[in-house]
Amino acid sequence: MSAPAEFQPLLDEVKTFWSPLPDKPEETPEGLLHALWLTAQGRPMSVRKAARTELAPLDAGSRARLRALLDEKKSGVPLAHLTGRQEFLGLELLSGPGALIPRRETEIVGNAALAKIKTLAQSRGPLLVLDVCTGSGNLALAYAHHEPLAKVYGADLSEDAVALARRNAGHLGLAVEFRAGDLLAPYDDDAFVGKLDFLSCNPPYISAAKVPQMHKEISGFEPGLAFNGGVFGVSVLTKLLRNAPRFLKPASWLGFEVGLGQGPALAKQLGKNPAFAEVETYADAAGEIRALLARTV
Fold it and tell me: pLDDT-derived band of residue 208, with 50, 70 and 90 as boundaries?
């Protein structure tokens, strides 16, 4: 796949100001330039998809638009906000400042959850699945796309996030309902209490003290509500673990993402919780626990 002649000089420029962040390893200088190039030409797509797409030469208008996009990127604007796209578990999602940009690390809990959901569907048939702290709806929509027997719902405290999640459902043509509210509160009724087959959550888990130390691209442009997890980083998770058993059927599953270093203690805490009979941990490539799944008794 050959690139137009002016690609290399622009790539050299990108390399002077950009290297991938640890939580977005796919955003290489080459991938970033591919994504902005295509966006400038009116073909916005995620960096993963853009990296696989052949580039056409720029005309005068697209060249000017690309220059403006590169200047915005230099100022710290996240790539997914410039393209308006982010890929997650094979889905090309809409992205924007209303919700946290889906990360590749969240695919760890997503893949683990999907494996359980598919197994449950094989034995139970139609399922009731809920994703809270849903953000852009990435997990909920992935469940609905990959397992048609799952009736999926989502919730988020942020009205802006819920609006983006609803746009994503329409964009993908998936019948997932999203409600605004605190964790499980929007679904605290007889239709959901004690009825869920699977409950998932990608909560805010960064401790408040660490938020000012985060990269400007995150703390300056993504919603703090989506990553600030309180004094110890586990305030939302603590509330989730307290309330989740009331919503889950027997022998059903809770799954959630955890921050670096939080996994062992939370796995131990879950292991002592009489509401759960089994706990599974899922690690990243470095061996760090990044997701936990627990089965109710």
Answer: low
**Dihedral angle over CA of 24, 28, 31, 37, nearest 10:** 100
Written as six digits, the tokens of 104 are: 């590749």
Whether the CB-CB separation of 253 and 116 falls below 8 Å is answered with yes
pLDDT category, 219, cuts 50, 70, 90? low
Q: Write down the H helix ranges in 43-105.
A: 47-50, 60-74, 79-83
Strands 289-296 and 248-257: antiparallel
* Closest by CA position to 174, among listed 149, 197, 152, 158: 152
Co-location of 136 and 274 in the same domain: yes
Is 34 within the bounds of a domain?
yes
SS3 category, 251:
strand
Residue 266 lies in a domain: yes
Q: Is the pTM of this model over 0.70?
A: yes
Strands (E), 81-167: 85-88, 91-94, 127-132, 150-156
Q: 90: buried, middle or exposed (CB in 10 Å: 19+, 13-18, 0-12)?
A: exposed
Distance CA 80, CA 44 (A): 10
CB 33 within 8 A of CB 17: no
Instruction: Give the residue from 21, 48, 83 where a domain finishes.
Output: 83
CATH number at residue 292: 3.40.50.150
Instruction: Give the contacts of 188 (CB within 8 A, at least 6 positions apart).
Output: none
